[in-house]
């Protein structure tokens, strides 16, 4: 990402907190790796965009043993809440502990294929419970992404998404931009038809070693 920003003459500041925003000016404090204040920035802008930190929804916020302090749902390796065993949780709303301490707190990224693997595991586990068995399936939490940069892009595969990883691969080029356009059309068609994982998709990904469920 840094190399792509450099190519497009875009500056960046890491480990920073936004102190306040005024019309045309953003005030940002940068921190060093020990979390000590390093530099204050005044950033003039004509157009700005902010992504606020994720948090859980109000409906579940603060329910003891269901959510963490940020309102994300606690799950075990089978996507089931350890306390309320009739509650499964999937997607961006689940609590994943941070991998390491960072100067400014950050969340663990969650991506589409990773979430699909959670969904598949959950569907199998609920079926098992309906049949009077214990849940056994675990999602692989692999990340398979096409990151589109507008005219080019980066494709990457991280297995599993959260380190330590067994596979870490990335490739860059215009083909990724075109592949993302094609993928969108393919994905929307799949959703309209109600097929989450056609056989040819499953077999192709399997040949690449990418599967939704842990063996
Ligand atoms: C800008 C951006 C780019 C991304 N790019 C990629 C990428 O290239 N590849 C990738 O793999 N991942 C990407 N991701 C991540 C991926 O999109 C998300 O991780 C994934 O969509 C999360 O799926 P989800 O089902 O958990 O939640 P969501 O997709 O957010 O689905 C939640 C749904 O719940 C609905 N909802 C919310 N509240 C209520 C309510 N009270 N009642 C009823 N419905 C409600 C919402 O409208 C929404 O449709 C990106 C995310 C963002 C924000």
Question: If you had to describe this structure to a student in words, what would you say it looks like?
Answer:
The chain has two domains: 2-44, no CATH class; 91-207, no CATH class. Helices cover 25% and strands 19% of the residues. The chain contains four helices and six strands, in the order H-E-E-E-H-E-E-E-H-H. Strands 1-2-3 form a three-stranded antiparallel β-sheet, with no helix packed on it. The chain has a three-stranded antiparallel β-sheet with strand order 4-5-6. The model has no long low-confidence stretch (mean pLDDT 92). It binds flavin-adenine dinucleotide (FAD). Flavin-adenine dinucleotide (FAD) is lined by residues 91-92, 110-113, 115, 145, 147. Residues 91-92, 110-113, 115, 145, 147 line the site of flavin-adenine dinucleotide.
Helix content: 25-40%
| Strand portion | 15-25%
Attached small molecules: flavin-adenine dinucleotide
Outline the low-pLDDT stretches. Answer: none
Strand line-up of the largest beta sheet:
1-2-3
Shape: globular
Mean pLDDT: 92
Q: Number of helix segments?
A: 4
Structural class: alpha+beta
Number of domains: 2
Instruction: State the major sheet.
Output: 3 strands, antiparallel
| β-strand number | 6
N-to-C span? 33 Å
Radius of gyration over all CA atoms, rounded? 20 Å
Order of helices and strands: HEEEHEEEHH
Task: Give a concise summary.
The chain is 25% helix and 19% strand. The protein has four helices and six strands, in the order H-E-E-E-H-E-E-E-H-H.
């Amino acid at each position: 990402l840094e190399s792509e920003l450099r190519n497009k003459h875009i500056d960046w500041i890491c480990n920073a907190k936004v102190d306040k925003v005024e019309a045309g000016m953003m005030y940002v404090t940068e921190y060093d790796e020990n979390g000590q204040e390093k530099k204050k920035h005044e950033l003039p802008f004509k157009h700005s965009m902010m992504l606020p930190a994720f948090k859980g929804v109000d409906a579940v916020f603060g329910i003891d043993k269901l959510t963490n302090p940020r309102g994300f749902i606690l799950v075990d390796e089978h996507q089931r809440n350890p306390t309320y065993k009739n509650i499964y949780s999937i997607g961006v709303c689940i609590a994943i502990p941070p991998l390491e301490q960072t100067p400014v707190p950050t969340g663990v990224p969650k991506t589409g294929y990773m979430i699909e693997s959670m969904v598949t595991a959950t569907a199998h586990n609920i079926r098992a419970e309906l049949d009077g068995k214990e849940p056994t399936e675990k999602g692989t939490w692999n990340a398979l992404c096409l990151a589109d940069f507008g005219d080019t892009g980066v494709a990457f595969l991280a297995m599993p998404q959260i380190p330590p990883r067994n596979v870490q691969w990335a490739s860059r080029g215009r083909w990724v931009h075109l592949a993302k356009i094609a993928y969108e059309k393919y994905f929307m068609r799949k959703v309209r038809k109600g097929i989450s994982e056609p056989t040819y998709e499953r077999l192709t990904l399997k040949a690449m070693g990418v599967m939704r469920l842990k063996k």
